[in-house]
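User: I'll paste a sequence; please echo it back and then give the predicted structure.

Assistant: Echoing your sequence first, then the prediction.
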Amino acid sequence: MDTAGGSLPGATEDSSSAARRLPSAAEGFEYDIAVVGAGAAGLTAAIFAKQAAPTARIVLLDGAPKIGAKILISGGGRCNVTHYAVGAEDFNGNRNAIARVLRTFPVAETIRWFAEMGVTLEREETGKLFPTTDRARTIVDALVRACEGVEVRTGCRVVSVGFEGAELSQRAPFLLRLAPCALPPEIRARRVILATGGKSIPKTGSDGQGYALVRELGHTVSEVFPALVPLLLEAGHWMTALSGTSVEAELSVRSESGRVRTRHRGSLLLTHFGISGPVALDVSRHWIAEAGTLVANFLPGETFESAESQLLAQAKENPRATVSSALRGRVPQRLLLALLREALVPEGSLLGALTREARRRIVRALVETVIPVTGSRGFDFAEVTAGGVPLGEVELSTMASRRAEGLYLSGEILDVDGRIGGFNFQWAWASVRLAGLSAARSLTTD
């Protein structure tokens, strides 16, 4: 690949003068920077590193045979690049730390950066930004083109990263062991950027190997588990018979005492295995982490009291109306009939003839249906990974490791996960840009 042309946002140092101060590869380092992982994070890290240090020898290593598999399936094959408004409140993790990193590369700069690579983005009503081509391939092709001058090696799985010396803190080249690969079984690098991702959708190459590598280099890893993942119900549950039904809903995770721990609102999709859709994905990591009870409100914005008051008012106004006609249009018909069955109320029951107990069963079914989740579909179907390396173990101004000198961490390997809608991509763009620029600029200090 040739050297990428043009400047990228945020690089204020004179890269040409910085390059003249770099020690050469002939001093004993095969590579100046090795980027482990060639997904969205790794490609971006390599782009910014090459921009900051044009003469540096940079290698991008990935165990998968092809680049960008996870990008290509994201957003239904369209790639939800970012969201028009991204803040720390959209993420789980240390929000003060997350905010510091996000501020280094705001959404507006991200949009300009993609425009410089020839990719225009279009905002949808939801606030999500997609390439105007509606093709994820557009994003992959742009990132690969911008990696000109970077040596890209696919089919090269990094199985170990260490130092030639014994101490993690000493300034020494990293030793990376590879298998299988056309390169020698070992290479050396002055700096290493880990951009391996987490464990979500392992068929794309995100198999969790990065956690083993980072532990090898002295870091801790908090428990990792699937996030933004569909949830399972037991076989034969009445909701599974409504597969394909979509409804606007509010899902909350509640403690044993009934306290609401988290609440999300959005589109809920009932499936043959359980529940999916944006609101189910957003709430999934909280249900997994907190092991609470999942409750659905199919009249989002309404409380038990307000919904009961409305039903009472309708009964007084038109007592001979049926329950199903009174509620028609509030929720999809198939779901409404199922909820009435669960409430043990025939659909033809007259509003004026309802007992207080029957009316309250209907309202409870509408606004407080307990969804007995049995588990998730796991990492194979999760969009991101929750957990990872604590942000306290990296220097937030550079993404440099506090445990191993010369190591930089970014993206999903860190203990940060966002809600659905492009937020996790924005975390990747911001954190890996910072890691790439910082790793390149640090070369001049050797």
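Residues 2-28 have pLDDT under 50 and may be disordered. DSSP finds 13 helices and 23 strands in the chain.
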